[in-house]
Recover the amino acids of this structure.
């Protein structure tokens, strides 16, 4: 399920013993995040999705079986190839827990597919992620020690450390900018005295984010700008101020339709 639907699905799954797993697209927790849950979770989010950081946090902090994949896109349904990978991952979880009989042919086919993909990857960070996932997914079915060792070796490389630090820096920047614009909005909405000055400050900040969001080339700056803007706009529709709503229309990023 997508967004709010994913939260509903998660809530139902956590309250039931009859649901085997959850596909959580662009959102996860109905309330507070949890460190462990009794069901496998497959999550996904677009690179420009305003819930991207929520899904990254789930991936980093959830200790029970899960997989989160990211794709180039907005707050939208996951692409078919990502959904297919999710179904395959859920099949492995079902065989691991005994919810379905082990299928050696399927396990062999998926294992070969994942090994080939990881060994073909040339980017050190993406290869590290692929080998890490491979070792975790197939440890109950295959000897994955060599792949776990490859993941450990890659983790120590400076390119992988730099990529990890870049992701963390991007998260911190998104949080900082989000906090700034939400504080401006809340002060504007709460005080007639501050309305003019805070609206002017918001206009400058949002116009700059809009400029960054419309850049032709993908970058950390563009991703953060798109996520902050779309999340801010989605959460600000209830504010009944004509000037403010006009500003939101002016800065809204143009999201291309997927064919």
């Amino acid at each position: 399920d997508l967004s709010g639907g994913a939260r509903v699905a998660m809530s139902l799954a956590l309250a039931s013993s009859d649901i085997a797993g959850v596909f959580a697209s662009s959102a996860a927790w109905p309330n507070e995040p949890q460190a462990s849950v009794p069901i496998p979770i497959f999550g996904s989010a677009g690179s420009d999705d305003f819930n991207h950081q929520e899904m990254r946090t789930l991936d980093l902090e959830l200790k029970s079986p899960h997989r989160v994949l990211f794709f180039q896109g907005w707050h939208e349904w996951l692409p078919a190839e990502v959904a297919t990978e999710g179904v395959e991952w859920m099949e492995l979880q079902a065989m691991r827990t005994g919810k379905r009989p082990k299928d050696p042919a399927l396990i062999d086919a998926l294992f070969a597919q994942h090994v080939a993909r990881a060994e073909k990857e040339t980017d050190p960070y993406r290869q590290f992620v692929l080998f890490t996932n491979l070792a975790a997914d197939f440890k109950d079915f295959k000897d994955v020690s060599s792949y776990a060792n490859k993941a450990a070796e890659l983790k120590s490389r400076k390119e992988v450390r730099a990529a990890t630090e870049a992701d963390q820096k991007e998260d911190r920047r998104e949080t900082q900018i989000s906090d700034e614009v939400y504080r401006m909005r809340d002060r504007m909405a709460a005080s007639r005295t501050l309305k003019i000055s805070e609206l002017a400050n918001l206009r400058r900040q949002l116009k700059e984010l809009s400029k960054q969001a419309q850049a032709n080339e993908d970058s950390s700056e563009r991703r953060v700008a798109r996520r902050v803007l779309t999340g801010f706009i989605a959460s600000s529709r209830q504010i009944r101020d004509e000037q403010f709503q006009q500003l939101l229309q002016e800065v809204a990023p143009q999201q291309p339709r997927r064919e």
